[in-house]
Automatic annotation (TrEMBL):
Top-level taxon of origin: Bacteria
Presence of the UniProt keyword Glycoprotein in the record: no
TM segment ranges: 266-286
HD-GYP domain location: 363-550
Stated name of the protein: HD-GYP domain-containing protein
UniProt keyword annotations, A-Z: Membrane, Transmembrane, Transmembrane helix
Entry-linked Gene3D superfamilies: 6.10.340.10, Hypothetical protein af1432 (1.10.3210.10)
SUPFAM superfamilies referenced in this protein's UniProt entry, alphabetically: HD-domain/PDEase-like
Length: 550
């Protein structure tokens, strides 16, 4: 990449970063302003709804006072006007304004008379509303009504009911009390719809859950998810005891700022185009002042590199700037490089040759030493003779290479196979060379040799990575092996590979007087143990290796 290109990229990146920062700032300001507007509108809606419900409550209080402070109602309660309900209480207007019921109570708080004004499809009834006051504190509240009456909210199951209660007195509020009157208004879905129509937006009533009653609840809750086009708000309403009763929840659309954002993005696109023009003009300036001289310098350097003969360096401009300094430095470097390169090439050739011979000799010596250690304890007539150990280890390495394992894994396979039976040297001779079947105690002692093999290998840092192979190769695919009785893929892959190779080694290892089986017999014998002693997949791969991989 040229210096001019880098300068253009840096300038373009700076201008782009500045534009992006301004875009983010202005867009963020726009979004925050819209969010604030949405929240303030939702606050106003919740306040209007709350005040509307309070207005309904005050209206209900006025209705209750109009009926309670009446000479006719007082006469009815004292027995002087028994026809009062039939004459005066059939008011259709009460149904129209949403009053659910009027309930007359005597001074002991017992219902004397009530009238239902709710619509036929409204589940509210005077009986259910009287029952709502029968809970803890309700009866005590009715017996101790304040002098000027009271109003509030009471919950009937999950439905809130507005109520107002007044003492029944004469119209001049004189004389003794004749009982009390309760006016109710159930906040049914129909009533909520009527109130919503007057507010020009929709709200809902959500009762407070038992879990929420145990919490400190805020008076307002707002939820404005930036990814949503709606804002949700809730206002808490408490009942006449001060306990949380229900939430007024409102949902309204957010302010649509898409057009404003589109115009803002168009503005920044125009600024981006102007910035691109600035970068382009800057590139032309750099081309005239810098790039032409650098291109000439590059051509001269390429010519020097391509000649391979005597060179006199590059042309040094008469200008006093950084490029002229670079040209002079290049001339010095060219002369020094030619000298050093010749020396370095001679040293590198010698060093590489020495390193290569030393590495190859060290690897051979290390592996030969490991082979000698692994086989020094075995006699040719042993169950695990020297030749058999080397034969099995080398075949395991070749088979693992056929499977595509990495070089480091091949080393571990080879060393693990070499030392797989090393623990046998700790067994008593009488047990190791016994010709008759082993007793249970002798078999338990024999099955400990993989543990001793692992301990011996873990004591040598070079052999430690290969210890799991020697420790686990006696495990069987079906879990019947030893020493841990693990099964399937829980057995390390290297151990499963060596188990198959060792089975083949025992089948094909020559000794005097033995008739060796052919490939078909070996294949059949290996497949007979697939799925029980041996991994069936490894067995099939080894058979494929025997028939086509040699």
């Amino acid at each position: 990449m040229t210096l001019r290109s880098k300068a253009q990229i840096i300038l373009g990146a700076v201008l782009l970063a500045a534009l992006l920062l301004l875009d983010v700032m202005f867009t963020g300001f726009l979004v925050d302003s819209a969010d604030q507007t949405d929240r303030e509108r939702m606050e106003r809606n919740l306040s209007r709804t709350y005040l509307t419900l309070k207005g309904e409550e005050r209206m209900l209080s006025a209705i209750a006072g109009n009926w309670a402070y009446s000479d006719k109602a007082w006469d009815f309660m004292t027995g002087a006007n028994p026809d009062y309900p039939n004459i005066y209480m059939n008011r259709a207007v009460l149904t129209e304004i949403g009053v659910s019921s009027l309930i007359f109570l005597d001074n002991d708080g017992k219902a004397v008379f009530y009238r239902d004004y709710s619509s036929p499809d409204d589940e509210s009834s005077p009986e259910s509303e009287i029952e709502a006051f029968s809970g803890e504190g309700g009866a005590e509240f009715l017996r101790n009504i304040p002098e000027d009456g009271a109003s509030g909210v009471i919950m009937k199951g999950g439905e809130p009911i507005l109520f107002a209660v007044k003492r029944i007195r004469r119209s001049n509020k004189g004389g003794a009390e004749a009982g009390s009157l309760i006016a109710t208004m159930a906040l049914s879905p129909k009533m909520i719809q009527i109130i919503s129509n007057s507010l020009d937006f929709t709200f809902a009533i959500v009762p407070v859950t038992p879990k929420e009653k145990e919490m400190e609840l805020p008076g307002r809750r707002l939820d404005n998810d930036p990814s949503s086009s709606y804002i949700r708000g809730s206002a808490l309403v408490r009942d006449y005891t001060g306990a949380p009763a229900f939430w007024i929840t409102c949902v309204s659309p957010n302010v649509d700022i898409r057009e404003a954002k589109r115009r803002l993005q168009m503005l920044f696109l125009a600024l981006g185009a102007a910035a691109a023009a600035v970068v382009f003009l800057f590139g032309l300036f750099m081309k005239e002042q810098v790039t032409a001289r650098l291109v000439r310098l590059r051509h001269e350097v390429e010519t020097i590199r391509g000649d391979g003969g005597d060179t006199y360096g590059v042309t040094v401009d008469k200008k006093r700037d950084e490029i002229a300094e670079l040209q002079r430095t290049l001339n010095d470097s060219i002369a020094f490089f030619e000298f050093r390169q010749g020396e370095k090439n001679r040293v590198d050739d010698i060093t590489l040759s020495v390193y290569k011979r030393f590495s190859e000799a060290g690897s051979r010596l290390c592996m030969k030493t490991l082979e000698d250690i692994a086989t020094v304890f075995w006699r040719e007539d042993d169950r695990a003779s020297r030749s058999a150990v080397l034969r099995g280890a080398r075949e395991a390495r070749k088979f693992a290479a056929y499977l595509g394992m990495e070089e480091e894994e091949l080393v571990y396979i080879y060393t693990g196979s070499l030392f797989a039976k090393m623990g046998m040297i700790t067994l008593p001779h009488s047990l190791l060379y016994k010709k008759t079947p082993l007793s249970p105690a002798e078999e338990r002692e024999y099955k400990k040799y993989p543990i001793r093999t692992k301990d011996l290998m873990n004591g040598v840092e070079l052999l430690r990575p290969a210890a799991p192979i020697a420790y686990s190769w006696n495990e069987s695919w079906d879990g019947s092996g030893f020493p841990r009785r693990i099964s399937g893929s829980s057995i390390p892959l290297g151990a499963r590979i060596y188990a198959v190779v060792e089975e083949w080694n025992e089948l094909t290892r020559p000794w005097p007087g033995r008739v060796l089986p052919d490939k078909d017999d070996v294949t059949a014998a290996l497949r007979a143990k697939a799925g029980s002693r041996l991994d069936p997949h490894i067995v099939e791969k080894f058979i494929e290796y025997l028939h086509g991989g040699e």
